[in-house]
Amino acid sequence: MAGRFAPRTPTTRTTVRGGHVPVPRATLVLERDPAHDLDLGLTLGPLRRGPADPTFRATADGSVWRASRTPDGAGTLRVRVRGGAVEAEAWGPGGPWLLEGLPALLGADDDPAAFVPRHKLLALTHRARRGLRLTRTGLVLESLIPSILEQKVTTHEAYGAWRGLVRKYGEPAPGPAPDGMYVMPDARTWAMIPSWEWHRANVDGKRSATIVRAARVAARLEEAARMPPAEARERLERVPGIGPWTSAETIQRSNGAPDEVTTGDLHLPGIVGWALAGDRTADDAAMLELLAPYEGQRHRAARLILLSGRVPPRRAPRMTPGDIRAL
């Protein structure tokens, strides 16, 4: 897909939010090869942390909105596909940075043609989901922190913690973003959140301490977005509390890494085993063996399996949500 986007006359201007504060605004139109589909929902969906994520919104007109903490500051991005073009607008000091990274965000660095299906299920899903591209945000902390929050808890718990902390310590998204959108806190703010506020957000001491350690070396971690995936994961895993599961979940998003398959997941090995071999008891080793024919594209293969909807019938009880706030 590289090179299939071409910019068409970007413009920059200033708008006024609330009649008081000037908010920088920039617009960009990217020409898109109509022979290659782009599904915004499939491509950007992994960046959404739950249906009420304050940093992400999909609206009825087909637009996707993202509020991000960029190296240049807070920014809001609105993107939609119309005809043969991608239209994007951005607001805030981080707006130009977001527009500069838009092609990578939409998968311009991704190459779906490199994926060769070797199972019927994957061939069918690959064809049905032809608009899938692997996103590359170029931002580490915005994927790392919610991934840490998701360690060893239910997604419901993790999404609630992310939502509450971003709303309390973040800032309203610049520009005319939908109501309730926020930019996540900066690294210094994450590092200064007091222990009782982590407790109120239902985040245990292990996860909160990992986030604080990561925030204190945020600049070094953000450098990982420009590294080869294996080196990037090694950089992240130097932080105590960040292991292979968390590093993979982060680098898949920040670096657009097509081969970084998640290990250590409670459900993924069984799903992959069931889809490719009818084995719901598969562990990480069995999963990696099944995905070996897709070396270089194992993350894409796993994404397609999840999108296929072929999951083993549930037998074991779901993980019980916990609530440390009552302790």
TrEMBL record:
SUPFAM superfamilies xrefs: DNA-glycosylase
Keyword presence, Kinase: no
InterPro entries found in the cross-reference section: Alkylbase_DNA_Glycosylase/TA, DNA_glycosylase
The entry's keywords: DNA damage, DNA repair
Gene3D superfamilies: Hypothetical protein, domain 2 (1.10.340.30)
The name this protein goes by in its record: DNA-3-methyladenine glycosylase family protein
Protein source organism: Streptomyces roseoviridis
